[in-house]
């Protein structure tokens, strides 16, 4: 048996399976702590569900990704890969909300914050929000204060849906549409009746009620692939991580000596620890027997789709960097012109549709017919504009489905098999499926590995606290 003191200094090895944000984070943290890491990614690129591809001269993201100032783990990740300046956060929360169904014509409202303490930072914005009546605005204020008193980790909250809670707190269909779902659908990837109240409380409490700047929005001003693949790959290379792209783990087993083997085509890797950072279904397929009490529960964690419609106009049709819409099937619209590298005076908009069950299987022609007239309704300048290109990206399993009760199904990082750890946005992070949740799960997995190795884990969020 190795003495603890010798164990501290012996070179330790780990294989991380999955090069999404969770696996990349775990690999970075383990390598930072001196562990020899091999990172396996089945696809030709890192970044997992947040990636880019080329279409002609354009760099296209598979889906618009945003994060909030309160996403401290993802911000750590951006800093760690030297990418923070390429994905800045707006100075102060400012979301234009355009209602095209108003009887007296389209109306623009804004969700903005003031430089005041919580909850006063949003008081003026709510008081002047034109898409709700005075009575509705007062009821939203009361519900927000009640929400602020909840503990998102309370298991009872996970058992009920967000819509039921909102109904109990006097919220009308209009307040749900014009405010709660406006934020909730984009962050949870589900409408209120299909979202766990625990996850909804987590999002609204952390984003809107924890710190005045918590909900300021950040997004990549470069293709996502530049951050999550190019820069992350560079950081991993700098630490000596062996990163194997196009390399799928096929089997994971524990040898009699307690070490792990990971089989990939043409090679068998051995390591002291394995971090399995792949989606829940793939995890289920790779888990060795006995690693979880009831592995089939992983298959009960559903998935939810996101669809993005990409429209390249022959001229500028939108002045703002983004906006969100009411009274239209269009949800959020982002100007992607600069980040895609589009030149020649046109404008490239990405229309981001969460909880997209109705659109995920629709043919491109049908989506074009549905959304182009809507964009013309929302953006007068689009009415005479030519459409140079229209295409669709579909992510059927964009996120885990945040349904009530999902909290019971999400496993933690530790398994029953010593040396095997789980990571991924779908594991028990307390967050909905986000880049933040993915990075947090990578922290947890790296922390568990290092603690088993008797090594110190410099948890970045504790340092920041
Ligand atoms: C269109 C879209 C929009 C989104 N918008 C936002 C947003 O605005 N804000 C936000 O915070 N989040 C958003 N998300 C969610 C966010 O992208 C994910 O939660 C996060 O990227 C998940 O990271 P992950 O590492 O947990 O998993 P994944 O990204 O799924 O990574 C798992 C990796 O494992 C690899 N893999 C699988 N099996 C194997 C194997 N056997 N061997 C080796 N490798 C394997 C996969 O190829 C993949 O790269 C969005 C997602 C999508 C799809």
UniProtKB/TrEMBL annotation:
Keyword Oxidoreductase appears in the UniProt entry: yes
UniProt entry keywords in alphabetical sequence: Oxidoreductase
Domain Amine oxidase: 21-450
UniProt xrefs under PANTHER family: BLR3003 PROTEIN, PROTOPORPHYRINOGEN OXIDASE
Entry protein name: Phytoene dehydrogenase
Pfam family name, one: Amino_oxidase
GO molecular function, one term: oxidoreductase activity
Cofactor(s) needed for function: FAD
Organism whose genome encodes this protein: Streptomyces termitum
Gene3D superfamilies, sorted: FAD/NAD(P)-binding domain (3.50.50.60)
InterPro entries in the cross-refs: Amino_oxidase, FAD/NAD-bd_sf, Flavin_amine_oxidase, SQase_HpnE, Zeta_carotene_desat/Oxidored
């Amino acid at each position: 048996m190795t003495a603890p003191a010798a164990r501290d200094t012996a070179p330790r090895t780990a294989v991380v399976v999955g090069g999404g944000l969770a696996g990349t984070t775990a690999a970075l943290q383990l390598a930072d702590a001196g562990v020899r890491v091999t990172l396996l990614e089945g696809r030709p690129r890192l970044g997992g569900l947040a990636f880019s591809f080329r279409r002609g001269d354009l760099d296209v993201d598979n889906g618009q990704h945003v994060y909030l100032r309160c996403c401290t783990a993802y911000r750590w990740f951006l800093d760690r890969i030297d990418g923070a300046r390429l994905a800045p956060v707006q100075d102060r929360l400012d979301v234009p909300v355009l209602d095209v169904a108003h009887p007296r014509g389209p109306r623009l409202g804004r969700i903005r914050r003031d430089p005041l303490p919580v909850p006063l930072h949003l008081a003026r914005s709510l008081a002047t929000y034109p898409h709700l009546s005075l009575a509705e605005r007062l009821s939203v204020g009361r519900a927000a204060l009640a929400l602020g008193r909840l503990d998102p980790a309370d298991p009872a909250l996970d058992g009920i849906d967000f819509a039921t809670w909102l109904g109990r707190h006097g919220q009308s269909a209009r307040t749900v549409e014009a405010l709660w779902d406006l934020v909730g659908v984009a962050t949870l990837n589900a409408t209120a009746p299909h979202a766990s109240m625990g996850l909804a409380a987590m999002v609204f409490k952390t984003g809107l009620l924890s710190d005045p700047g918590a909900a300021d929005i950040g997004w990549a001003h470069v293709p996502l692939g530049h951050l999550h693949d190019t820069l992350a790959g560079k950081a991993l290379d700098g630490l000596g991580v062996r990163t194997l792209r196009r390399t799928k783990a096929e089997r994971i087993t524990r040898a009699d000596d307690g070490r792990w083997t990971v089989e990939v085509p043409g090679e068998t890797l051995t390591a002291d620890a394995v971090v399995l950072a792949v989606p829940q279904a793939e995890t289920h397929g790779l888990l060795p027997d006995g690693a979880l009490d009831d592995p089939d529960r992983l298959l009960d964690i559903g998935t939810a789709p996101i669809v993005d419609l990409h429209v390249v106009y022959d001229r500028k049709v939108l002045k703002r960097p983004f906006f969100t819409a009411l009274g239209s099937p269009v949800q959020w619209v982002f100007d992607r012109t600069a980040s895609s590298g589009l030149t020649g005076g046109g404008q490239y908009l990405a229309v981001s549709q969460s909880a997209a069950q109705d659109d995920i299987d629709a043919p491109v022609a049908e989506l074009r017919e549905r959304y182009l007239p809507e964009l013309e309704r929302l953006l007068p300048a689009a009415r005479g504009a030519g459409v140079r290109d229209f295409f669709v990206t579909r992510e059927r399993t964009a996120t885990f489905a945040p349904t009530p009760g999902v909290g019971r199904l999400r496993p933690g990082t530790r398994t029953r098999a010593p040396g095997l750890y789980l990571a991924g946005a779908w594991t028990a992070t307390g967050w909905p499926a986000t880049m933040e949740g993915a990075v947090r799960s990578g922290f947890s997995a790296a922390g568990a590995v290092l603690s088993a190795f008797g090594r110190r884990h410099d948890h970045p969020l504790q340092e920041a606290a």
